[in-house]
Specification:
The chain contains ten helices and seven strands. By secondary structure, the protein is mainly α. The protein has a single domain (about 5-140, about 165-275), classed as Transferase(Phosphotransferase) domain 1 (Transferase(Phosphotransferase), domain 1), CATH 1.10.510. It has a three-stranded antiparallel beta sheet with strand order 1-3-4. A two-stranded antiparallel sheet has the order 2-5. A two-stranded antiparallel sheet has the order 6-7. A hairpin with a 2-residue loop joins strand 6 (about 95-105) and strand 7 (about 105-110). The radius of gyration is 21 Å and the shape is globular. This is Fungal-type protein kinase domain-containing protein. Pfam families: Pkinase_fungal.
Length: about 290
């Protein structure tokens, strides 16, 4: 009988978490190749199966819970399940969800392509939701602005290309935020006393994942991504205190660096993971890559 747990951060040591990330990405790529974008990559939807009765330590990572998944290519899905079944699946997945947004000054239904939990969304998706929320807020409280008297400067900047809504890169970045979340939980649980765990929770975990609104989460995660990808003295000190496992932080930093440039595709994701898998000491408890 298989045993499942979504607390895979308990395995975030040595080669385990690298292999599990690889397996999660393989599963995501297989689903996406058949016309479905999962869109809800979070700590509660990534599972580990201990299904080998001959080796109780053997584990396998897999994705679950496609409640907010979107069929982006019906033809691809039809090749897998048939046209009739594909149409039924498309009908049951509308591609958007109505969510009631509650705010101290207003409450309104937000109709959008909701993609999971804000704390694990890619920065691009967070920005999309934050803009939608701001538009409703401005409609509720119209203001009259006095135009500036200065002549504006229009500086030339290298604007990052926006990603299509159906791009798998959004979900791949979500894997990176889930990894940071898992590492923070593991770090917090490693503290010997309740007071130390509470101090870590307040200073790091809640600081990163405790924001409530899309806009606050976007601003905080943008800063955290920059901090993790920088190597200044204060940044290095912060990273050591946040995640004491230097190997895990190095993997996280590399993934963040590529995600920041919006270039974290399946190939680059696997390239980074395999670079570190090759350096980790193999053990009998690490399952082979499919």
């Amino acid at each position: 009988m298989a045993l499942f747990t979504n607390c895979w951060f308990t395995q975030c040591t040595g080669p385990f978490f690298v292999h599990h990330l690889d397996q999660f990405s393989i599963g995501h790529e297989a689903v996406y190749a058949n016309g479905i974008l999962p869109r809800d990559i979070s700590i509660g939807n990534l599972f580990i199966s201990r299904s080998d009765q001959y080796d109780p330590d053997a584990t396998w990572g897999f994705l679950a819970d496609l409640d907010v998944a979107k069929v982006y290519d019906e033809a691809r899905l039809a090749k897998l399940v048939g046209e009739e079944q594909a149409k039924r699946i498309v009908k049951s997945t509308t591609g958007s969800i109505t969510v009631w947004i509650h705010h101290p000054r207003l409450s309104f239904p937000y109709h959008g392509a909701t993609q999971g939990i804000a704390q694990f969304m890619s920065l691009s998706v967070l920005d999309e939701h934050a803009r939608a929320f701001s538009q409703h807020e401005m409609q509720d409280e119209p203001t009259v602005e006095e135009p500036p008297s200065l002549i504006p400067l229009d500086p030339e900047v290298d604007e990052q290309p926006s990603l299509p809504a159906d791009s798998p890169l959004h979900d791949l970045e979500s894997f990176v935020w889930v990894l940071l979340y898992a590492l923070c939980i593991k770090e917090m649980n490693s503290k010997p006393s309740v007071s130390e765990r509470g101090a870590y929770c307040a200073r790091y975990f809640m600081d990163i994942f405790g924001t409530l609104s899309f806009r606050e989460t976007l601003e905080r995660h943008t800063f955290i991504m920059s901090r993790i990808t920088r190597n200044g003295r204060s940044d290095k000190a912060w990273k050591r205190e946040c995640i004491s496992d230097s190997n895990a932080m190095l993997v996280l930093q590399n993934l963040m660096q590529v995600a920041k440039t919006k270039a974290l595709d399946y190939e680059k994701f696997k390239e980074i993971l395999f670079h570190y898998i090759g350096q980790l000491e193999p053990t009998n408890t690490v399952p082979p890559t499919l």
